[in-house]
Amino acid sequence: REAPMNPEPWEDVMADLEHKIMPGITHWQHPHFHAYFPSPISYPAVLGDMLSDIIGCLGFSWVASPAITELETIVLDWFGKAIGLPPSFLSESNGGGVLQGSASECVLVSMLAAREQALSRLNEENLSDHKASHLPKLVAYCSMEAHSCVEKAAMISLVTLRKLEPDSNSSLRGSILSKAIEEDEAKGLIPFMVLATLGSTGSCSFDNLEELG
Asked: Which Pfam families does the entry link to (predicted)?
């Protein structure tokens, strides 16, 4: 239907939600919803979103919003410590990070960052006029069980992605990765990133993170 040209009463807006949206929605919060991911919302999250929407500022830089930027840094350090990351991953050293809109976006940003680091290093070593001249040689690795967002990130990043066959438990092992790296280095390619899967979409399989390094 056409977009409304005039304001509508709140009761009509809620009626549209109940009668036109809810009957056809995939209700991720329903207790009988067992697919994809666990319920991504909670009452504290609802309240947090309300406070964020009330403030309504853009936190893309410290100058734009000092408090929001510093809160982001603090919360990410909390999370890093909660999952046992070493100090090198925290903001007090050379680590830290930012919140992204989705896990797929995180994969893309991580790949772009790894690509930039690799290209800058190669440019310094080879004194090339253009960093992009090394781009065709870069290769990243993941399991065949990896999420589709990894392949999409490689396409956007213009790098080669080699999807490796996992073991019988659908786990990517260190020996499989090492063999692939040796093969690619012999071809003159430059490995720059490994993307481990910790809970695949298809079977919740885990790559052997300790072996992958």
From this structure: Pyridoxal_deC
Task: Report pLDDT for 18.
Answer: 96
Concatenating the DSSP letter of every residue in the chain gives: -PPPSS---HHHHHHHIIIIIGGG---TTSTT--SSSS----HHHHHHHHHHHHH----SSTTT-HHHHHHHHHHHHHHHHHTT--GGGSTTTT------SSHHHHHHHHHHHHHHHHHHHHHHHHT-S-GGGGGGGEEEEEETTS-HHHHHHHHHHT-EEEEEP--TTS---HHHHHHHHHHHHHTT-EEEEEE--BS-TTT--B--HHHH-
Q: What is the pLDDT of residues 135-193, one digit of tens each?
A: 999 999 999 999 999 999 999 999 999 999 999 999 999 999 999 999 999 999 999 99
Structure-block tokens of residue 45: 């999250």
Which residues, including other chains, have CB under 8 Å from residue 206's CB and lie 6 or more apart? 171, 197, 198, 199, 200
Positive/negative CA dihedral, 67, 69, 71, 77: negative
Using CA atoms, how far residue 135 sits from 93, 159, 191, in Å, is: 29, 7, 11
Strand partners of residue 194: 141
Q: What is the pTM (predicted TM-score) of this model?
A: 0.83
Contact 191, 181 (CB under 8 A): yes
